[in-house]
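Batch queue: ligand-bound targets. Current item pairs a single chain with flavin-adenine dinucleotide. No template structures supplied; prediction is de novo from sequence plus SMILES. Inputs echoed for audit trail.
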Amino acid sequence: MSTRSQQYDAQVLRRDRLSPHLLRLVLGGPGLAEFASTGVSDEWVGLVVPGQFQSRYYTVRAWADGELTLDVVVHDVGLVTEWAQRDGAVVGETVTVTEPKGSFLPPADAGWLMLVGDLTALPAMARISSETALPTRIWAEVPERPAGYLPEGVEVTWLAQPGDGQSALAEVVEDLVWPEGPGYFWMAGESAQMRAIRKHLMRERQLPSTAYDVMGYWRGGAQRQPRAVDPGPIWRAGKAAGKSDEQIWADYDAARDHT
Ligand SMILES: Cc1cc2nc3c(=O)[nH]c(=O)nc-3n(C[C@H](O)[C@H](O)[C@H](O)COP(=O)(O)OP(=O)(O)OC[C@H]3O[C@@H](n4cnc5c(N)ncnc54)[C@H](O)[C@@H]3O)c2cc1C
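Prediction returned. Tokens below.
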């Protein structure tokens, strides 16, 4: 089975600052002519910026009229973080994106959604909550609230971030009061926090793996990630092997622990 994914060259058409830590990049150009959304609300692409070979992963915030919108969190140091903030550059540059993949899959009987994440998960939580018909609650741990970013009418609990490169989401989830009946729990953020949550959901809450999706989006601790592991091949190989989304994300975390 091939684990190579399709790649597309795209031009940066616009860059807008949505809040101090969130930049919006709008990509376009003829290289995206064959790009096709999966239609899965948390779909992501790999992004390779000029002069680099490594990818970083970003949620497809929107794909419409040939334009691909990615919302990028800028933190202390980082490959994309530093590239995206350069004065007088970025717009007009050519980047590469990979074909999208998504993992958000509520069971057919789900009557509610709980979405939990940090700023890197906010693009996915915004897209999921604007596309779902299910009653949705969001817990967002952010350094600031990007104005008007989440759709009206969604119940949001804003949580302060303990510091750049830090997260306390695991404790928050352990204290949540859960709605009655079957639903779907989606969460993304710092990997160590996500591992703790997976254990909690399996051991304490004893949820079936189809009832939740918990994804490590970034790894705290190191100064610079030596090599980002591409979730795409792990995703495709896991799906081909009949693994659940949860097993695949656990494999992804394990692969990153060995880089
Ligand atoms: C499926 C998926 C979807 C994602 N969607 C988005 C998205 O829509 N928007 C988005 O901004 N990110 C998203 N991420 C997370 C993003 O890929 C990582 O944060 C990535 O490491 C950022 O790359 P960088 O080049 O800026 O920093 P890197 O060069 O990768 O990392 C430099 C150092 O900065 C630290 N670091 C990395 N990320 C953060 C962070 N967010 N906050 C604080 N410290 C950090 C780490 O300690 C790291 O060692 C997603 C990840 C995945 C797997």
